[in-house]
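I am writing to request your help with a piece of structural work I have in hand. What I wish to show you is a protein chain and, alongside it, a tokenised description of its three-dimensional fold. Could you please explain, in whatever detail you think fit, how the structure tokens follow from the sequence? You will find the record immediately after this paragraph.
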Amino acid sequence: MAYLFRTQDKNGEDHPRWRFQYTDWQGRRRTGTGYTSKIETEKRAAKIELEHDEIRRGYRPPPKSWNKHAKRPFDEVKEEYCEWGESVGGLGGRPWDKEHAAKRRSLLDWWRDRLGLEVLGDLDGVLPRAEEALRELQAAGRKGKTLQNYASGLATFCHWCVKRGYMADDPLDGLAPFDTTPQTVRRAMTADEIHRLLDVAPEYRRLLYEVAFCSGLRANELRALQMDDLDTERNGLHLDASWTKNRKSGFQPLPAQLVKRMKAFRDARTAAALYRKFHRGHKPKAEVPSDPLLYVPRHTARTLYKDLAAAGIPRLAPGGKIDFHACRVVYINSVLHAGAGLKEAQTLARHATPDLTLNVYGRAREDQLLQVVEAVGREILSPESTKKAQSAELRKAAGTESSCFPIAYGSDCLVGVRGFEPPTS
């Protein structure tokens, strides 16, 4: 007979979900997580206990995913998975970065507590309960991308276990993906807005914004730049595979006048002085390089919002929102509108596919749409066709308004028309 109970949180209050203990087909006492309803939890516990009893009696076969690894503690396998990821689990066989590794551990710990995973074999038949947990997150207001992150946190772990023979089958096979379409889009700032933002920002932040607008580098990539990464001969930045998002080294060209200002900023070692000033007594959000090229605030979005407010630029507008990543949107659209070919635009944006460059970051400008439409009109609507159309309109107007029309063409041509009677002699 299954035993039902509730755990307590750190405040001493009962957890809303019931838990139960039962004896599995191997005679081991195990714990499962039920529902907020005690009756439904009793039904689930009785069903699971009956299934294990039938396996023990030989009425049904053991779970397919059961093998010698089924009894291994879940945390033990989780640690092996994370150690593998921190070694060669990243793109191109590179290690996970610290932030990604911490997120993976956190997600697996959440699934362990949510599903009551004590040993690896507890993952057998876990798909319905995993879907229920994701639905609860969805009902709580979590967005599609967040839900997909939760799902992939457990799904990739299960796939890794299957590839190593720790499980015979993937217990999450059939888990449907969530819609990760962004609820809001980022808009490309206009040239006037960019100039107003640069005018109100302090010099060190103005330089940061200018580099972001002219390179498309993300905040973490800008923060990782060191003084040696600036190349004054080739006019650009050397990108290291250890901190770029695509995990590839490369070179990002920059305007020559911007490189000169960056060189003066670098030679004065201003970035290092700013980090000492603003990060004193605070733990940095991300690791700061020993010889930083630029000063990147801990909270780039909050800092940008202050400068936007000072410049009188709305964060939210009909075209979308503005955050620090919108600087990358500005750069890619500037490249496209400057007349770059598709391959050049994709290369400068450092995208894996041109579809990402055009359909995710690319924005159509209304003024350019109007120019294209006018150009089409000039091509199709030739002067000759325009004159013919105008002459036809004039003739039509004269025919409907002039009372002399029947006389000019003769009255005989209207014989037979209803309501017309020819004149008598």
Summary: Confidence is low (pLDDT under 50) at residues 401-420.
